[in-house]
Each structure stands twice: as structure tokens, then as C-alpha cells.
Specification:
The structure holds two protein chains of two kinds.
Chain A lengths: L2 H9 L5 H6 L4 H30 L9 H36 L7 H26 L27 H28 L12 H32 L13 H18 L2 H15 L6 H14 L15 H29 L8 H24 L1 H7 L3 H31 L5 H28 L13 H29 L38
Helix pairs in contact in A: 3-4, 3-5, 3-16, 4-5, 4-6, 4-14, 5-6, 6-7, 7-8, 7-9, 7-10, 9-11, 9-12, 9-14, 10-11, 11-12, 12-14, 12-15, 14-15, 15-16
Chain B lengths: L4 H15 L21 H34 L15 H30 L6 E8 L2 E9 L7 E5 L5 H4 L14 H5 L18 E4 L3 E8 L4 E5 L4 E5 L5 E6 L6 E5 L14 E6 L1 H16 L10 H20 L15 H4 L4 H10 L13 H11 L13 H6 L2
Parallel strand pairs in B: 1-5, 4-10
Antiparallel strand pairs in B: 1-2, 2-3, 5-8, 6-7, 9-10
The chains are: A mainly alpha, B alpha+beta.
Catalytic activity (chain B): 4 Fe(II)-[cytochrome c] + O2 + 8 H(+)(in) = 4 Fe(III)-[cytochrome c] + 2 H2O + 4 H(+)(out)
Subcellular location (chain B): Cell membrane; Membrane
EC number (chain B): 7.1.1.9
Chain lengths: 532, 402
């Protein structure tokens, strides 16, 4: 590149208006787009959950048809997994990875733009079927087979909109793969001089490993939906027993994607928590190297535990035992992480600003979810737990009070860097306490009804479960409404209303991102920073 | 009386507080919070395993949370202004890798033992084939003791009436809707104690004998689950899964279960009701069913249209309404009211054929309904809801259908 070109490139005016966002190749703007998109999907998916909880407030069918209920559970799951959690973490990666490793931008900025702009269209296609359904077009109009879309419910018995669903999953997959390639190329090629791999912040490490997981498993998901498509329209019988196919094959293929996917949704959270706890404990992270190795072992193990989602399909004894042992083994590296965080806090000098509050809530509630996960690994007992609300409680503890809480922690932690103003304390405190109490009211009693025998994805239930379901629904409405407080916090920051943030916004914060001013200028690191 | 939301909420809170103290002493009592010990040897072992693991994870959790709490109190800036700087300790890291590993082995050993026991479904006295349909269960008795040719099978549907399920509004209390009576002008029926759990024809099993279940499905995946018998097994089209249970003598009674794998619209409405009886009673019951099955089908013609319509309406409500709507308006299945299919003479033969042999998502009813019932239902569908074709189909027509 000639000097003149480089000069032009670095000092042009920031584009304004719609063009700034539509044609953006700037990692910060694209990160912002991802984060707003993720939050919008979080609210949309939450709205669907409110429909579920309204119907389940009382036994009997009062508000919706069981068919519509199934569409709600399905699209709620899809919107949250593919719309809220995954893009949320990609947004954080976009914003923070270049800042953390001293890179001027992501390595492939145009692909970055594309991988974001695919997403709104993917979800427009998926959610359009819900609108059609809600306004009575077609019966049933939206996907109604659960987010796991097991064949043959989704193939021979799937509604016409299954094809919209397949198309939209393909688009989400393409977006994720491109995002992952971008992260890997950026981390391997654009680190500032002196930023060796083992000096990288853990958030970068966990994202690097996550990116490899994404590249490994998103094509498997694409394969699964393509096989569905050909089964539905081109006369193949991959999953149709009557044609010599195998419905259980679908589950193997799906969970070979699905289990690594679970870690895709939690590894970046580990990175966030590993950044926040040392900051507010004013003490270096305990066991940095073991954190890296634990993350890598979790990622590797995630490829050999998939069948623990399907213990009841009737696998041979040897297979069942193998998957049980491997699943139990995952708790060792996960435990190491939790112990490391506790040891980081130990004999530190802690203060409890908002990011720290969310981080500690994450450690405790994620551990609850991890421990119920260990219970689920014990196969003979899983025969009772499987497909009950106990499972629903488990994965909401790790996904909501785990992944989502970590994103709230990240947002409160880095909002000063993104916006230049500190997040509103009063609203933030209200948001935290309100969410903390309601999330437990919402998900803890699910353990009880699940153990007592309430199957999941039920539009109506036996009277025995009525009392707890009432409280679960109240918790649900409360948690849902609490998130509007976060919307207010974000809007205030976006409007630059609040206390001005210094470059090092938190007293104990370490890392390159705190060396640049707040808000971070449109272009950072024109010349690479010095890494000590 | 229909209880209000607040009333129920109060009861819920109280029962939550009491549940910690009261221990269910009677095996028929079902806990609202915890797994059930169940009635079989295996279900008891599973329950014990659950209890052990629950204690282990509770203790681990409390230890970790305790440490966090202590740290939050003692190592806050106001108490400990100068942070320590340690960030490594090899011994500690080895300990917290090895100790969990040992705990895991301690859990894996009993888990493996129970799993091996569960896997052995040999030497069963009774074999029942369980087939999941959308949205009912079919039980077929294959072998019992020395009898390898029983030939008894039947469908088991939800017994809870629709009026109990479809509450028009919330029952009152929290929202300003008034009572249900205000809203719909009449009291809607109170829900039975076993709401959504009762079936019209239960699965009948003998006590004290090993029962082997062969589990499969006719359409999509279902899951056969009787919690008191110790676990679930998926019912998968094209596969035959096995599981087994011995309900000890003295534990006769009715046990309820539900479908545990999403199977479509009425997933929540296909319960499993198992009636466990003494071996003597079971033998009598089975003999009666065999006799019924062996009898020639009743082909008495209907005297007039009304007689056929009466039986047709009943049969339609039990077998068809779930997909085709209470008023033939359609749903998962096609609509009949005013449709060409149900009114055009040309489709009459096809109509009978689809009922007997099924088509695409429509299951075959030839084995489930008698010729008389099929004739009645076709007659009903062609005459109800303004279809008034006047077609009267006789049982013999169905019997003769190729």
C-alpha cells in the first residue's frame, strides 16, 4: 500500500446517516449493529416467552391454541439461540477483539459487513411466519416442532413454513461461519507486536476457540437442514423410516452440531467474566494458563458428548456408558474455571460496581446450572429427568443467568468505552436486582415441577403443577419487564446522557482497550500500540 | 368451587414451606417438588441415585457459594484495602482437578450398575407392544406366560372432556374479568383430580411379573413415560425400543404418565394410564379381551339415518374431532363442513378408503374402529354441519370395501 493511499484511508470523514450503517466496514459500528440486533431479538424472543407463560399461568387452555403454543416455544428458542445469544457475542467480539489485541480493525471488514447484514433478513424470513400465523394466514403457519426440529415432525409432518425456516437457518449459518473466519484471521494476523498468544486477554482466547467450534459445526447444521429439504421435496429418505431412512440419525446429526453450539454460547461468557472479576478484585486472574487449557478441553470434549441429549432413544449399553462418562468428565474443566474465579476474588480488594454484580451473579447461577447438568449426566436418572421442566430449568440457568447475564456484565463494563458515558447507576441497580430476583422466581421452581414429572413443551398440565406454574409465570412477566430498564440504560448511553467516562473507566481495569479514549475513536491503532 | 389465583398462590407458598418438613410416608403420595420413588425396584434405585447425586451437588454448591460469600465479606476494599497478588498455586490446582474426578468416579459406579440392570429386559412373563400415535397410545398384548397368540389390542385416548380443558377465561381473582360464570353465563366444569392424566381404556398390567414393553410409533416420535415405573423410552417410527418393569405384589393401583417427546398439537393430551392388578384379575381380564377380539364383527345394519348419526357423532368426537375440529371445520386435518370431499358422491368410496387405510398424515383406522363405527362416522361426516347428503353407509359396505 502506498503512503498516500494509507493517508487517505485513515483520515476520511466518518460517513453519516443510513449509509454509515448499511455500508459500514468499521468493526465498532458493526459491533454496535450486532449488539442492537441481539437486544431486539432478545425482546422479540422474550415476547414469545410471555405468550407461553400467559397460557401456562393456569391449567386449561385459555388464550392460545396448543398449535400456536408449539409455534411459540419453537420460535422463542430459535430467536434466543440464533438471534439473541450468538449475535450478542459476535457483537462483543467485533467491538472488543481489535481493541484488546491492538488491531486497527477486523481482518476482513467487508465480509464483516456482510455477515451482519444477512442476519436481519434471515430473521425477517423466520419471524414473518409467526406474523402470518398470528394473523390467521395458514394453519399452522409458523414452525411448530421445537427449536430442535426433530424429524419426522419437521419433515413429513412439518408445516409449509418449514422451508422458510430451512432458508433462514442456512443464512444464519453462513453469517456465523463468516464471523468466525473473521475472528480467527484477525487474532492470528493482526495482533500488535509483543502480543503473544499467551498474553492475549481470555476473552480473545475463548472467542478464538469458539470460532473454531463454529467453523466445525455450522456446516453440520447446514447438512441437517439440507437433508430435511431434500426429504421434504426431492424424494430422499434420510430421516424417513418408511423409505429406509433413520429418524434417530437426525438427532445424531443435530446434536453433533447442538452440543458444541451449547459451548459456543458459553465460552465467550467465560472470557468476559475472566476480564471483569480481576478488575474489581484488583488482583490478577488466578491460573491464566489453566483457564486457556480448560477452555480448550471443554471445546474438545464438546465433540464427544452429543448423545447425552438423546439417552432415551435406545442406544446400545456401551454407547450410553461412553457418553455418560464423557459428559461427567466435562464438569472437571468447568469446575477448574469456577474455582479459578473464586481464587481470583480471594484476598482481593473487591468493590461491587454493576459489572461485578452481574459477574458474581453469573458465577453463582451458572454453577447452579452446571450442577444440575451433572445430575442430568447420570443416565439412569436422566431417564426420569429427560424432556421435563428439570431440563428446561437447567438450560435456562446456564443460558439466561449464564450467557445473558455475562452479556449484561459485558455491556455495563464496556458501555463507558463504547459511548463515553457511564451507564446510569440507579437504573442499572434496579435492572440488576429486579432481574436477579425474578430470574430465580422464574427458573428455580421449574426444577420442582420437572422433578415432580411435568414434561416440557406442554400447553396444558395436570393440576398438581398448577401452583408452581403460577409463580413461574409471575417471575417470567417480571423478568421480561425488567429488561426494559436495560433498554433505558442503553438509550441514555447512546444519547450520551450521563457522567463522562475516563479512558480507564474502572479503577482496576487492565488491558489495551482502556488505553484508548472513551468513547473509543472511530479509528484506533493507526500505529500499533506497545505491548509490555 | 373454582379456586382463585390468589388462593392457589397462597396454598403454593404454604406447601413449599411445609414440604421441607413433611416426608411422604405413603407410596401413593406424589411429591410436588421432588422425583417420585415409584413402585418398582429399579425406580427405587433410580430415586436413591438421584438423592445421592442431589446431596453431592448441593454440598459442592454450598461450599463454592460459601467461599464466594466469605470472600465478598472479608475481601472487600473496605476490609482489605491492599489486594494480594498471588495468581498461581500448583498444588491447589492439582487438588481441585483430582478431587472432582474422584467424586465423579464415586457417582459413575452406582450409575453404571443401575444402567446395566435396566438394560436387561430378558425373561419377561408379559410382552406388550406400545405404539405412539398422534395423539393416543395403542397397546397390543403379544405374549403372556405360555400364550404366544393373544391378539388383543386397543387404543387408549385422553378421557378428560374438552369442556374441562377449554376454560374461557381466567378463573378470577387477579384480573378484572370477573368470574367465569359472569363471562360465559354458566359455570364451566371443575377440573377432575386426575385432569389430563386419565385415559378411556387404561393399560392393564399384572403385579409381581416382569413386563417387557416393546415401544414404537406410527407417525412421529413420542416417548412412553410412567414415572412410577422408573423412566422413559422414546417411541420412534421404524424402531422398536425395549424397556421393562416389575410392579411388586401389594402395589396394585393406577399409575399415570404422559407423552414426553414433542409430537405436535396435542402432545400434552395423550396420557398413559396404567392399571396394575393382581395376576388373577389380569388373567380374567385378558381372557375377556381375547373373547371379544375373537368374536365376528357386528355388521347389523343401521335401521335409519338417525341411528347411524348417533353412533357417528360419538365416534367422531372420540377419534376425529381432535384433528378435524369439533364442527368439522378442520385444523391439523382437512375441513369437512361444506367440503367437496364430504358432499360429492364421487368421493364416497375414497372417503371410506381413507378412513380404513389412512393417507399421508391421516392414520389408518381400519384396525382401531369396527366396521359399524367406520360406517357411522362416514355417514356422520357426510350429513352433519349442513352437509346433508343423505348418504347412509352400512357396516356391510365397509366390510366389503377392498
Amino acid at each position: 500500500m502506498s503512503t498516500a493511499a494509507a493517508h487517505d484511508d485513515h483520515h476520511h470523514h466518518a460517513p453519516t446517516g443510513l449509509k454509515r450503517w448499511l455500508f459500514s466496514t468499521n468493526h465498532k459500528d458493526i459491533g454496535t449493529l450486532y449488539l442492537w440486533f441481539s437486544f431486539a431479538m432478545f425482546l422479540a424472543g422474550g415476547l414469545l416467552a410471555m405468550v407461553i407463560r400467559t397460557e401456562l399461568l393456569e391449567p386449561g387452555m385459555q388464550f392460545v391454541d396448543p398449535e400456536f403454543f408449539n409455534q411459540m416455544t419453537t420460535v422463542h428458542g430459535l430467536a434466543m439461540v440464533f438471534g439473541a445469544v450468538m449475535p450478542g457475542f459476535v457483537g462483543l467480539a467485533n467491538w472488543m477483539i481489535p481493541l484488546m489485541i491492538g488491531a486497527p480493525d477486523m481482518a476482513l471488514p467487508r465480509m464483516n459487513n456482510w455477515s451482519f447484514w444477512i442476519l436481519p433478513f434471515a430473521f425477517l424470513i423466520l419471524l414473518s411466519s409467526v406474523f402470518m400465523s398470528a394473523f390467521g394466514a395458514g394453519n399452522p403457519a409458523a414452525p411448530n416442532f421445537g427449536w430442535t426440529f426433530y424429524a419426522p415432525l419437521s419433515t413429513e409432518y412439518g408445516p409449509a413454513s418449514t422451508d422458510l425456516f430451512i432458508l433462514s437457518v442456512h443464512m444464519m449459518g453462513i453469517s456465523s461461519i463468516m464471523g468466525a473466519i473473521n475472528v480467527i484471521v484477525t487474532v492470528f494476523n493482526l495482533r500488535a507486536p509483543g502480543m503473544t498468544l499467551m498474553k492475549m486477554p481470555l476473552f480473545v482466547w475463548t472467542w478464538l476457540i469458539t470460532a473454531f467450534l463454529l467453523i466445525a459445526v455450522m456446516p453440520v447444521l447446514a447438512g441437517a437442514v439440507t437433508m430435511m429439504l431434500t426429504d421434504r421435496h426431492f424424494g430422499t429418505s434420510f430421516f424417513n423410516a418408511a423409505g429406509g431412512g433413520d429418524p434417530v440419525l437426525f438427532q445424531h446429526v443435530f446434536w453433533f452440531f447442538g452440543h458444541p453450539e451449547v459451548y459456543i454460547m458459553i465460552l465467550p461468557a467465560f472470557g468476559i467474566i475472566s476480564a471483569i472479576i480481576p478488575t474489581f478484585a484488583r488482583k490478577p486472574l488466578f491460573g491464566y494458563a489453566s483457564m486457556v487449557y480448560a477452555t480448550a478441553s471443554i471445546a474438545l470434549l464438546s465433540f464427544v458428548v452429543w448423545a447425552h441429549h438423546m439417552f432415551t432413544v435406545g442406544m446400545p449399553l456401551a454407547g450410553t456408558l461412553f457418553f455418560m462418562y464423557m459428559t461427567m468428565l466435562i464438569s472437571v474443566p468447568t469446575g477448574v474455571k469456577v474455582f479459578n474465579w473464586v481464587a481470583t476474588m480471594w484476598r482481593g480488594s473487591m468493590t461491587f460496581e454493576l459489572p461485578m454484580k452481574w459477574a458474581i451473579a453469573f458465577v453463582i447461577l451458572f454453577t447452579c446450572g452446571g450442577l444440575s447438568g451433572l445430575m442430568l449426566a447420570i443416565t439412569p436418572v436422566d431417564f426420569q429427568y429427560h424432556d421435563t421442566y428439570f431440563v428446561v430449568a437447567h438450560f435456562h440457568y446456564v443460558l439466561v443467568s449464564g450467557a445473558v447475564f455475562s452479556m449484561f456484565a459485558a455491556a455495563y463494563y464496556w458501555l463507558p468505552k463504547w459511548s463515553g458515558v457511564m451507564p446510569n447507576k440507579l437504573l442499572g441497580e434496579l435492572h440488576f436486582w429486579s432481574s436477579l430476583i425474578s430470574v430465580n422466581l422464574l427458573f428455580f421452581p421449574m426444577h420442582f415441577v420437572g422433578l415432580a414429572g411435568m414434561p416440557r413443551r406442554y400447553a396444558d398440565y395436570a393440576l398438581q403443577f398448577a401452583d408452581y406454574n403460577f409463580w413461574i409465570s409471575i417471575g417470567g412477566f417480571w423478568f421480561g419487564l425488567s429488561q426494559l430498564l436495560f433498554l433505558a440504560v442503553c438509550v441514555l448511553c447512546a444519547m450520551k446522557k450521563g457522567e463522562k467516562a475516563p479512558a480507564r473507566s474502572w479503577e482496576g481495569a487492565e488491558g489495551l482497550e482502556w488505553e484508548v479514549p472513551s468513547p473509543a475513536p472511530f479509528h484506533t491503532y493507526d500505529t500499533p500500540p506497545v505491548v509490555k | 368451587m373454582q379456586s382463585t389465583l390468589f388462593h392457589r398462590a397462597a396454598v403454593g407458598l404454604t406447601s413449599l414451606m411445609i414440604s421441607g418438613m413433611a416426608v411422604a410416608s405413603d407410596w401413593t403420595e406424589r411429591s410436588n417438588e421432588n422425583l417420585r420413588p415409584g413402585v418398582t425396584g429399579v425406580s427405587q434405585e433410580v430415586y436413591d441415585l438421584h438423592t445421592t447425586v442431589l446431596w453431592i451437588v448441593t454440598i459442592i454448591g454450598l461450599l463454592v457459594f460459601g467461599l464466594i460469600l466469605v470472600s465478598m465479606i472479608r475481601h472487600r476494599r473496605s476490609k482489605n484495602p491492599n489486594p494480594s497478588t498471588f495468581h498461581e498455586n500448583v498444588l491447589l490446582e492439582v487438588v481441585w482437578t483430582v478431587v472432582p474426578f474422584v467424586i465423579l468416579i464415586a457417582m459413575a459406579v452406582p450409575a453404571t450398575r443401575v444402567l446395566i440392570e435396566l438394560d436387561d429386559s430378558s425373561k419377561a412373563e408379559l410382552t406388550v407392544k406400545v405404539t405412539g400415535h398422534r395423539w393416543k397410545w395403542e397397546y397390543e398384548y403379544l405374549t403372556y406366560e405360555d400364550d404366544n397368540n393373544i391378539g388383543v389390542s386397543y387404543m387408549s385416548n385422553l378421557a378428560t372432556p374438552t369442556e374441562q380443558i377449554n376454560n374461557p377465561v381466567l378463573a378470577g381473582g387477579l384480573f378484572p374479568y370477573g368470574t367465569a360464570q359472569d363471562a360465559v353465563g354458566s359455570e364451566f366444569p371443575e377440573k377432575d383430580k386426575n385432569y389430563n392424566l386419565e385415559a378411556d381404556k387404561p393399560l392393564v398390567l399384572p403385579s409381581g411379573q416382569k413386563v417387557r414393553f416393546l415401544i414404537t410409533a406410527a407417525d412421529v416420535i413420542h416417548s412412553f413415560w410412567l414415572p412410577d415405573l422408573g423412566g422413559k423410552k422414546d417411541a420412534i417410527p421404524g424402531f422398536v425400543n425395549e424397556t421393562w418393569a416389575i410392579v411388586p405384589e401389594g402395589k396394585e393401583g393406577t399409575y399415570y404418565g404422559q407423552c414426553a417427546e414433542l409430537c405436535g398439537k396435542n402432545h400434552a393430551f395423550m396420557p398413559i394410564e396404567a392399571e396394575v392388578v393382581s395376576q388373577e384379575e389380569f388373567k380374567t381380564w385378558l381372557a375377556e379381551r381375547k373373547e371379544e377380539a375373537a368374536a365376528a364383527p357386528d355388521l347389523t345394519p343401521f335401521a335409519d339415518l338417525d341411528e347411524a348419526l348417533e353412533l357417528g357423532e360419538q365416534t367422531y368426537a372420540g377419534a376425529c374431532a381432535v384433528c378435524h375440529g369439533n364442527n368439522g371445520e378442520g385444523g391439523v386435518g382437512v375441513a369437512f363442513a361444506g367440503s367437496d370431499f364430504a358432499t360429492n358422491e364421487e368421493h364416497l368410496d375414497e372417503h371410506i378408503d381413507v378412513l380404513i387405510n389412512g393417507r399421508a398424515a391421516m392414520p389408518a383406522f381400519g384396525a382401531q374402529l369396527s366396521p359399524r363405527e367406520i360406517a357411522a362416522v362416514v355417514t356422520y361426516e357426510r350429513n352433519a354441519w349442513g352437509n346433508d347428503t343423505g348418504d347412509l353407509i352400512q357396516p356391510q359396505d365397509v366390510q366389503d370395501h377392498e
